[in-house]
Amino acid sequence: MTGEFLKETEVFLLDLDGTVYLDGTPIGKMPSTLQKLRAAGKRLVFLTNNSSRTEEEYRLKLTRMGLFGGGDLVFTSASATVRYLSERYRGARVFLVATAAVMEEFIAAGVNIVGEEPDVCVLAYDTELTFAKIKQLDYFLQRGVPFLATHPDDVCPTSYGSMPDVGSFLAMLGRSSGRTATVIGKPMPLMGEYLSKLTGAPLSKMCMVGDRMHTDIRFANACGMRSVLVLSGETTRESMKNFPDSPDLILEDLNEIDKYPLF
Ligand SMILES: [Mg+2]
Description:
Elements: H1 5-8, E1 11-14, E2 21-22, E3 25-26, H2 30-39, E4 43-48, H3 55-64, E5 73-76, H4 77-88, E6 93-97, H5 100-108, E7 112-113, E8 120-123, H6 131-142, E9 147-149, E10 155-158, E11 161-164, H7 166-177, E12 182-183, H8 190-199, E13 206-210, H9 213-223, E14 226-230, E15 249-251
Bound molecules: magnesium ion (MG).
């Protein structure tokens, strides 16, 4: 692995947990590593499937950690879902299960959020989930209303291991309603199209950096992007052999990228 492609890369898509921070702490000298990438003319997009927070909340969190810089962007699976709705369900009545903050983000983006007679249901990572919301969503699903989910992750990493994420809720709703959702976030290639439009860079000049084989690296391969696997999160050299995808480069953590020429 030579990492020669890093020179040609215009946009780095950076996964968050396990890639730039762990448990809310930047990994090593990450702020200066990201500054080096910016200084080399690379654009940075912080890309997460976690749709429990808004883009603004992530910008503030990353800024507090010294990770967010001028020209950087944040893009979440919720942002991608808003785009999907505007392309395919423009003006539709949307039943959204999400945190209050993400609900506000959808409304601000012009999505018509309703509590009854929806044209489409959307499940985001609702960390304020209640039985009343599950019951209402299940009711609409049993009546055949189209069903979208922001992302497929089964679990979300925590300091002690993991907690249930949207994929786990989808398994439950699959059992109760018999329905499966159309999933929007990584590893679905649709997210790549949106990022290419957002940045103006072709997919071939984008590189996904992440710690998960089945979302981050799968996503890069599905989109025709380059990829860097970092071993600072979920994946080990041993466990990566269990996946059909392979990254273009493997780093212990992203800080190791300064061993490679960037331009
Ligand atoms: Mg991660």
